[in-house]
Each structure stands twice: as structure tokens, then as C-alpha cells.
Design brief:
The complex is a heterodimer. Chain A is of the alpha/beta class. Chain A has helices at residues 10-19, 40-52, 76-85, 152-155, 157-171, 237-244, 291-313; strands spanning 2-5, 30-34, 57-63, 89-94, 102-109, 112-125, 145-149, 177-179, 185-191, 196-207, 215-233, 258-261, 265-268. The longest helix of chain B is centred in the middle third of the chain and has 29 residues, at 150-178. Classes of the chains: A alpha/beta, B mainly alpha. Strand 1 of chain A pairs antiparallel with strand 8 (187-190) of chain B, so a sheet runs across the interface.
Chain lengths: 314, 337
Amino acid sequence: MMRIKTPKNGRVRRELEKRAPKLVETGKKTLILQGTKTSGTLNGVLSEIYHLKKGGAVRFTRKNDNIRPFESGGETSLEFFSLKTDCSLFVYGSHSKKRPNNLVIGRMYDHHVYDLVEVGVENFKSIESFNYDKKMAPRVGSKPFIAFVGEGFENVDELKHLKEVLLDLLRGEVVENINLAGVDRAYVCTAISSNKVYLTHCALRLKKSGTVVPRMELVEVGPSMDLVVRRHRLPNEGLRKEAMRTAKDQPKKKIKNVSSDAIEGTIGKIYIPDQKVGDVALPNKAKGVKRERREAKKKEANERASKKQRVESE
Amino acid sequence: MEMETESQKPFHVDVGNLLAFNPFHNFPSLPTSREELVKECLQEGTKLVQAVADSLFNLPSTEDVDGPLVKLPPPSTKLPREKHLPKPKPPTKWEEFAKKKGIQKRKKDKVVWDEQTGTWKRRFGYDRVNDDKDIPIIEAKMTDEPGADPFAKRQDDKKKRVEKQEKNRLQNLKQAAKIGALPSHVQLAATALPITGTQAAPKKVTKDELGNVAGMAATSTASGGKFDRKLPGEKPAKKQGKHRKFLPVVEGSGIGSREKEQTENVLNKLISKHSHEILNVGKAVTMYNVKKEKRARNKRSQEGKSASATNKLKPKKQLHKNTGKKGPGSSKKGKAK
């Protein structure tokens, strides 16, 4: 026996529609959580990532000891959280003697784990430790420039995977229009060796140059860290093919009452309803102007006049 | 999109993502100090960002209140989706039938002309056109049985029609759910059939109860549920029954050889070496007192009622066993002998 459940609230209905799969997807949300043990640096890293992604991130602060991303049974909690918070990217931090300052960055497809990259964080410098002119601090939610430097990102498998995941993490929303005055941040990732990447967050300064294009200047503001790639798990071929599928562009919706002609170009049709000129309401109806009132007054005046005449005649 | 710079080394620039990638840089020797490394990274980063900005600022821009707006091209790096592509809704049974027969959809008006009252009335809702309650007289037909209420029959018919429609809607949604194209705001929830006609819905089973039932089912297997394949994330079964602790087989004779202690405790209790410690004097005294009072009360009540027949009928209370008070006392007697 089945029962149909529909939301009785407009708010709930809108929320469900936001979470439904769409043809063209908007920004991914990130889930930031931690494992049984975290170190001081790791706490700093997690909170700074949360600050950088303030608009689209959820931070869990309790420890979760039943999450082991690289084991087959240890992902159920992660998938449950992803389903409930509607997050498709996650950053899981844990600290142990074997893997100090460990960060697992992963992506989900349909709320099941798609791929994972495990990195260790070294030489972490937090936002507070940088001193710079506070006026050029990047604003929350601005679209960043992303720069990848190094041949390692092309040749080494793990770094290639890390590049893709970092792009997904740092990208933010995909927008059609961008305000040129609002570009103020950049992420720079350099491949130092075949398994180490230096990631830093900089503010942009646009300087006057002769042409339309301003001269860019990078000033380090945000967190900077060394990422050492430890393990990674690529998605299955079938899953990857399915996730990379894009819908063919939808035929553009026909705008009504617009047609195009070879000679005249674009033609539009406008339909105007019948105008009943007599019944149109006058804009400033002064009290004395109303016809009924006038007529009523006239009638009264006549009656009074006739009454007087009768009285007089009598 | 590739871009040639002055140094003749192409970068990969993706303006849609504001991304730039330089695949040709490498550190021939790692710079000695950290600052050198940082400086070089920033230099390379600046070059790349400049390359992106070059293409970005050269795009056609429109003026806006806050600043120049630029329309970005779609990103060229492909990234995986986060959810599957939405599947189109399958046609419902009526839609298939209509397509086969060639029935077109007609647009219905919200108001309909009502002949009876001579006004425009709603098609549905309050004060509607063909409302059941507006019919004053229903003429009897030859086929009607005497004694049947035609108004009630009309209402029943309507109810049946509505139920049929609901059933058909459910079937259509089930069909859509089967191929994964359920609309986002609809959920199909399973309800259990009520047993023996009671209207009460079955109680929702809690997580602990489910675990208990699963454990019970597991113990009914031949190996007691120990080697059952577990679902991912399922916790191991809780141990049922008394917790029995066994002593280790080989034990050193260091502090507290536990076996010796255990046997000592047992023997002490049996032979009552320290019997004054074993007997709880206070408890024994209270028990004796309570028994005495009860006996006295019973005797008084029996004297009050006083018939000998009732005495015979009353169950004799002295037949109860005497408990703990006797235990060590009896052993003492045994020892004294």
C-alpha cells in the first residue's frame, strides 16, 4: 500500500524544488567535518576553509568516529549527512600518528561517494598571521581567479586529480554575468614536487595601465598551506561517464508574439483590448462634477421652486 | 582556449571559470628558503592571472549601476555533475489514451453559464454550476428499486469516482517512480494494511527495537548469527545473557592469584570461618520480628471471628518454610556436635 505525500506548505515545496536534480546545476555546497582527533592546525584549516566558502558551506563541529572515507563501510554516515544537508563536496579532517593533519576532500554524485583525495597539510599559515592593508581584503562570496602552475599537474595522476577537485572546491557558483569591479581574489596552486602543492589565497589589486586591461598585483592575505598528496580514489569508469553527461542544449523557448522577417527584421505583435471611452473613470472626480449629483441638485432646486410657487399661489 | 604570451609559452585559459593553467613550469631546483619559494609562486600566479584578466577585460561589457558587467562564456573545463540528469515524466495512462484516440486538450473557462439561475457561476468551488445539493427533485425511473435513496446514490457514485481517480493517480506516480522520474515535491510513502479492520496505524518501530529483532533473528541461525554478512554501517550484535568472566589459563603467582582468591571466598562462605560476617544480624532480627507480629495479628483476628469452622477452613500459616535465620544457626549446631 502506498500513500502520496505532498508538502502542505509553499516553503517546503520550494525547498524540495531547490534540492531536486536540475538540467543546469548551480553551485555545490561543501560539508566540513572532522574525525575522532584533530590537531590545532587542522582546526584552523577547517575553520578557514569554512570562512572562505561562507555562503555555500556547512560546518559540523562534533567528532565523528564512524567515518572512514577510504573503507567500504565507513562512508554511510557521510552519505547520510550529504543527503540531509544537500552537500555534494565534503572536507573531512582527522589527525593520527600515521597521517598527521590529514584532510580528505571528496565529491558526491547522487549523494554517493564519487571520488576522494587525501592530502596532508604542512606549513599552514592562517589568515591572522598575514599583515596587509585591510582595505583590499576580498569580500565574501566574490568569484575567484584560480591559477595552477607546474608540469606536475599535467603529468602526475594524483596531482591531476587534485587539480580537478581543487577547482571544484574553490570555484564557487557558475555565473553568466560578472561585475568587473568586483574581482578581488585569486587562488594560486603551485606544484612544488611530484607530490606537494603549495596553495595560497591572495587579494587582487588592479593597477592602472595604459590599456583597458588593468595590471594585476597579488598580495597574500589568506591561508597558505602545503598539501602533500597521500592517497586518492578515482571514480569508476561507468560512474564517471554518467556524471560527465550533459544534456543537449534545450531549444530556446519561443517568445510569444515575436516573429522575424527577412526584410523587416524582428516584428512584434501587440494586442490592445477594446477601449470603452464613455465608461472610463475620470481621474480627478471633484465632488461637484459628478453628473448624478448635479442632476439631483437641479431636481431639488426645481421642486423647491415649484413648492414655493404653489404655496405662494395659495 | 590557448593564449600566446610574450615568452612563447602557451597557457591554458578558461575564462568561464576564471581559470589559468601553466603546464610548462617546473622547479629545476627547489629554492632554498621559504620566502623565495613563495615569491616565485606568486610571480607565476601573477602572470597567469594577468593572462585571464587580459581576455576577461576585453569581453564586451555593458554599463551597470555598480560597474561594468561582462557576460562570461560557458566554462570549458568539464566537471562532474552533483546529481543525475532529470528524467522526463512518462505520459500518464490518460495521456497515452488521448494520443491514441487523437483527443485534444480543451482550455476550460473558470466561469460557466448556469441555465437554471441565469448567471455566470464557477466551474468548481463555492456556489458552483452542477452542485449536488442544488438538485431539488430527482424523478424516479422504472429501473430504480423502491426504497433506494437517489440523493445518497449520487453521493456514493461521486465518492467512487473520486476514489478511482486517486487510485489512477497513484498508479501513474508509481510508474514514474519506477523509472526515477517522480516530481520533486511528491513522495511515495509505504503504509501497512491495518490488521483485522482496526483503524489504528501500526506503531513506528524504533532503532533499538529493530536492532533487537535483528539480533533475535540472527540467534536463530545455526551459528548464532556470528558469521552473517553485515550491511555497511551495521553495528555488531550486542551480547545477550549474563556476562561470564573466565579466569586466564596460565597465571603468574604475583599479587592476587585470582584462582586462589576465588576458591577461598567460596570455602569461607560454606564453612563459615567468619560466620559473624556472613550473617546480617539486623536483617535476621527484623525478619523474626515481622513474623512474630504477623502471627500475633492473625491470632487476634482469629479470636475476633472465633468460629471453629472458620479455623478449619482457614489455611494454616505455619506451613511456610523458615528462611535465612536458620541457615548458619543450623551449621553452627552441626559444628558443635
